[in-house]
Every structure is written in structure tokens, then in C-alpha cells.
Amino acid sequence: MPAVKLRGVGKIFAAGAVTALREIDLTVGAGEFVSLIGPSGCGKSTLLRIVADLETPSSGTVVVHGKTARQARLDQDYGIAFQQAGLLDWRSVQENVELPLQLHGVGKRERRARSAELLEITGLTDFARRLPGELSGGMQQRVAIARALARKPPLLLMDEPFGALDEMTRERMQGELLRIAEETGAAVVFVTHSIPEAVFLSDRVVVMSPRPGRIIAVLDTGGWGRDGDGDVRSSEAFFSSVAAVRAALHEGHREPRAAETAAPTSAVGRDVR
């Protein structure tokens, strides 16, 4: 069963004044890592919010693990991390991470063990008892990522979760995200503005046109980061994959009207190691 299946999804805001998305068709397989990339304002985040049932599509259908988006949200079948951390100011770092587990009736001992594991992964063990207001923006975002991973959900929805992190922490978190997704079998839908990040993390990169957002290319990038070798970022073949995604983005900017009617293309971005 696919993790996410979108058919003919569109979104119109402001009483028809702004068409954000048009005719989005996309299937994300179980355990697949798919990144959405495109120019600012193309509807990437809106599409993610539609999958999460935080926005209602104006047209089309959304199925998450065989359920309606609403039912998947009620069943909490996914973890989600936004650009903003969205932490509860009155709960400690540890308590924020434990919140999804607590809401599902997980016992205190198990909650503590899981939160300790995630705080270790995100480099926050020494800050477990701090309040969010005592942390930097990047550290708050790491707490939000740990919280999204707490229940080992079968689907992770992530909207530029590493944008506020320094480069070294960002690369470490990319590796940890892939490791956790591999261990849990979770599918990931990941919004980013970083082409190298999308290529490193993803099995496929979905390139979107300027508004109204449409899928103009789907590139098979092969999951460069799955082998746990950060050195691939320096390889010639990796740069070729990055160049292919960049070319698709530039093509979308040059011919935005054509992108509205053209069918998505597919390209293989990883033919050698």
C-alpha cells in the first residue's frame, strides 16, 4: 500500500484569486524518501499541509496509508516537523519530545527511554531539562525533529526541518534521519530549498514549477545517503545528480506556462557510484 497517493490535487486561496497548486499527481511508496523542491511560493509547503490534513484541497483526492487524510490525522499515522519548531514553552525539552508518546498512553519508563535515545541522536542530552526559551533556534528545531520521530511513525512529513541548523549539524541530522527511516521503514516526504540536500537524502526528487505549482519533473536520484557515506557528496556522479535537478528547476523558471500543461518527466540521476 502506498504511503501517500495524490490524484488531481489543486488548491485555490483567497476566493479564487490565487491558484497555489494545480493537478498534482504523486504516489509515495512505503519506505520511500521523496523530496519536494521548487521556487519560493510554488506550493511545496501547502502540498505537505494538504497531506497532513492541515489544509483542504480545492480539488482532487488524498489518500494516506489507504485512509482519507483526515482519518490518518486522527489516527496520528505520521510525524511532522515544520520550519518553526512549535514547542510548548512550559514543557521541558524532554517533556516536549515525550508528548506524542504521552498522548498515546505510553508508560513513563518507556517514554523516558525513547526520549533519552532521541536526545542523544540530536545532541541535546545535556539540555533535557531546559525550557525551549533557553535554547537557540537551531536547538529548538532539533527538539521538534526528535518529537516528530518519537512514535516511529510509518510516515514523516518534514518542511525544511534542517534550515536553521549549522552545516555540520545539518549533515549529521541528515544521516540520522536516513538511519531512523531505514530502521523503522518510514516513508518521508521532505520539503527543502537545498538541491544537494534533496539529492543526498532522496530516492526521488519532485521538481515543482513556479505558481501555480505543478510537478514538472520527477528525478530518480537513487538515495545517495543510504550507504551512510558522507563522502559521496564530493563525487563527480553526485554533482551530476545535483546538476540534473538544478537544470529541471531552471527549465521550470524559463517556461512557466509550458510547465502548467507539460507532463512530468523522469530522469535517472545516479548511474555510477
From TrEMBL:
The keyword Nucleotide-binding applies. It comes from the Bacteria. GO terms for molecular function: ATP binding. This is ABC transporter ATP-binding protein. Residues 252-273 are annotated as: Disordered. InterPro entries: AAA+_ATPase, ABC_transporter-like_ATP-bd, ABC_transporter-like_CS, ABC_transporter_ATP-bind, P-loop_NTPase. Keywords: ATP-binding, Nucleotide-binding, Transport. Pfam families: ABC_tran. It comes from Nocardia acididurans. Residues 4-235 form the ABC transporter domain.
